[in-house]
Design goal:
By secondary structure, the chain is mostly helical. It contains 20 helices and no strands. It is 73% helix and 0% strand. Helix 7 runs parallel beside helix 20, helix 8 packs parallel to helix 10 and helix 10 packs antiparallel against helix 18.
Length: 451
């Protein structure tokens, strides 16, 4: 009994997270979604190998991700999926705790619980979680191996092999492969330039980089992805007429439209960065405050202070409502370009803010690259006709990057300040816990609404 109490006290946040996720899964039911459609019938008259080949040739390059979906969807092995999904949630938490050095476990766990579960059910619980949550969880473990290599720690084989396997599985999702490629390219180049590496660490980073590059190439050459794009044009009938600039503009505006209006993690990141600017001693601080305040201002003016802003600045409520492209019917109006301009300013402002508020330039540059990599996982969808049809689940990887940046900024700038102001620290801590409880209740209601 004493040993059990000791384990619980040492892993309190992991235990709480597990209990909450376990309760969610008790009530999750699968009544609709992709797993009840085509996935459920692939093995009725064909082999697993045939099914994977069919998917690769006709729909997607994500055959390693499709593998568990097909096996679980056949005969609807819901209990097996629930068991594995709970494990993946816990792996994701463990990965982020390690990546943030377990310095703020309450913050990391709370931020994970703030994520709206409804986004992971838009294509059915089974298909959506296996496509997004599972690669993210395995990707976090792969990045733990990367962190081992960066710090040149002795890496036992029992960590290397699972880490490489996780890299292969996670980067089978093409947008996550892009994130890995961007981040690992920077890390590998920096290692070579600084000459601060061991042969083992360089080889590990190189293997992970080559794996991500290979998965990007496979996705690009996959006949199924080409066939899928032809089918999904029904979601965007004028897709074939879009120019390169149109696609880039759509990717940027649709991503920032969600980030500044609906994503609690993205808005949290923008607010934390603004506070970081307030607490830092930097030149041109006034200009940086204005730049970092744009995103939070838009969010609060469209939510909490919507009535006030509608009274004095009614035009602000229509900002980001339609993140569309410039056409021959609206190109004359300045308002048509405002969303794109503001989105670009927010992205540039975020990068500049990260670079100036961190004392360590090398760390700031790495975090900027991580932000660019996370942002790219959503921006790249501007080149897909399913840009809007896929829903909010496509922001999942970007929001996890925001979670990481929140924790790093809090640790670098805000945590030490709050220790000096105990009353403010207590108020903010209570407010954060209340927000987490409300998010848990909301997620529980989401789960129960599918009963």
């Amino acid at each position: 009994m004493q040993n059990i109490k000791k384990v619980i006290s040492q892993h309190f946040h992991e235990v709480i997270f597990f209990i909450i996720i376990f309760i969610y899964h008790i009530f999750i039911k699968e009544y609709s979604g992709d797993s009840l459609g085509s996935y459920a019938h692939f093995l009725d008259d064909h082999s697993l190998l045939w099914a994977l080949n069919y998917r690769f040739m006709n729909w997607t390059s994500r055959v390693l991700i499709d593998l568990p979906i097909i096996l679980i969807a056949h005969n609807q092995h819901i209990i097996i999926w629930k068991f594995l999904d709970i494990i993946m949630f816990c792996i994701l938490q463990h990965g982020f705790l390690y990546l943030t050095d377990k310095r703020h476990p309450s913050l990391v766990t709370g931020l994970l619980l703030l994520y709206p579960l409804s986004n992971l059910s838009s294509a059915g619980w089974i298909a959506t979680t296996i496509n997004y949550l599972w690669p993210a969880a395995l990707g976090s473990i792969a990045l733990c191996l990367t962190k081992y290599a960066i710090h040149k720690k002795p890496i036992p084989l029992r960590i290397v092999i699972p880490g490489i396997i996780c890299t292969i599985l996670a980067t089978n999702f093409e947008t996550l492969a892009l994130f890995f490629f961007i981040v690992l390219s920077y890390i590998f180049i920096k290692m070579l330039i600084s000459k601060k590496y061991t042969t083992t660490s360089a080889c590990i980073i190189l293997v992970q980089l080559l794996v991500s590059a290979a998965n990007i190439l496979i996705a690009y050459l996959c006949p199924g992805n080409t066939a899928r794009k032809a089918v999904e044009i029904r979601w965007m009938h004028d897709f074939l007429t879009l120019t390169l600039i149109d696609k880039i503009s759509l990717g940027i505006t649709s991503t920032l439209s969600y980030a500044v209006q609906y994503s609690i993690l993205c808005v949290f990141m923008f607010c934390i960065l603004f506070i970081g600017v307030c607490r830092s001693n930097i030149p041109n601080k006034k200009h940086m405050l204005i730049l970092s305040a744009i995103a939070p201002t838009i969010f609060f003016s469209k939510t909490i202070f919507a009535a006030v802003s509608n009274l004095f600045i009614p035009a602000i409520n229509s900002l980001f409502d339609y993140a569309g492209k410039i056409t021959n019917t609206n190109y004359r109006f300045a308002s048509s370009y405002l969303t794109f301009v503001l989105s670009t300013i927010i992205i540039a402002g975020t990068l500049i803010t990260i670079m100036v508020i961190f004392n360590d330039y090398s760390r700031a540059l790495l975090l900027s690259i991580i932000f660019i990599g996370g942002l790219s996982t959503r921006l790249i969808l501007g080149f897909s006709p399913s840009l809007y049809a896929s829903g909010y689940r496509t922001f999942f990887f970007f929001e996890l990057v925001c979670l990481y940046l929140i924790t790093c900024t809090y640790d670098e700038i805000i945590a030490s300040t709050l220790k000096l102001y105990k009353n403010i620290n207590m108020i903010l801590s209570i407010a954060f816990r209340v927000a987490c409880v409300l998010a848990i209740i909301s997620n529980f209601m989401t789960v129960c609404s599918h009963l």
